[in-house]
Write a structure and sequence with these properties.
9 helices; two-stranded antiparallel sheet; mainly alpha; three-stranded antiparallel beta sheet; globular; about 50% helix
Length: about 190
């Protein structure tokens, strides 16, 4: 039995993965150029937790002490503040907090296209760093209205999380967003 893929569904899937690749590239680039991160984003746990804060920006100041809730780089609307979990790309609760199963294909695509590279992380973990081509693309994206807001959020969160490990971020998310994280594994965070 063969299944004929729906061309519209395939186009939407490609568009969705491209969106996530762009956001992850901007986040890795922002972290890598911020002091206190050693020029890289150290570990998938840290990637997932920082990406959670980028995707749910109204929750970020509750988790990161150094992030002012009035920081204009978060671009928070009254609606964002009133309903902080009503986001464009929700994540799921997994064993170690917020997660997105798309990270593996997204990171694979970015490394395969020469935009990110794997580097040695802390205690043998994997870390990600932008390549020169990745930095150039991220800078070009930052100059566009479509990506300026996401870039601002990435930079604000990278600065506020400077010097923090993925595990420390996970612990803060569980501690400060306990009601939100108290849900079964694989449930969407909304």
């Amino acid at each position: 039995m063969s299944i004929t893929p729906d061309p519209e569904e395939l186009a939407l899937l490609r568009e969705d993965l491209a969106y996530h690749q762009a956001r992850v590239l901007l986040l890795v680039e922002a972290v890598a150029r911020t002091a206190g991160h050693a020029g890289k984003l150290d570990g998938l746990t840290k990637l997932a937790k920082l990406d959670f804060l980028v995707r749910y920006p109204a929750l970020a100041p509750a988790v990161l002490d150094r992030l002012d809730p009035n920081d204009c780089r978060l671009h928070l609307s009254e609606e964002d503040i009133a309903v902080p979990t009503d986001v464009e790309a929700p994540m799921t609760r997994y064993r170690y907090g917020p997660w997105d199963d798309r990270y593996y294909p997204v990171i694979g695509a970015l490394t395969g296209r020469g935009l990110l590279r794997y580097v040695r992380g802390r205690r043998g973990s994997v870390a990600l760093a932008p390549t020169p081509a990745g930095r150039k693309l991220a800078q070009a994206m930052t100059a566009t209205p479509e990506w300026a807001e996401t870039t601002d959020r990435c930079v604000a969160i990278a600065e506020a999380a400077s010097g923090m490990t993925g595990s420390a971020l996970k612990d803060l998310i569980y501690e400060r967003l306990a009601d939100l994280m108290d849900r079964p594994h694989r449930q969407v965070i909304q």
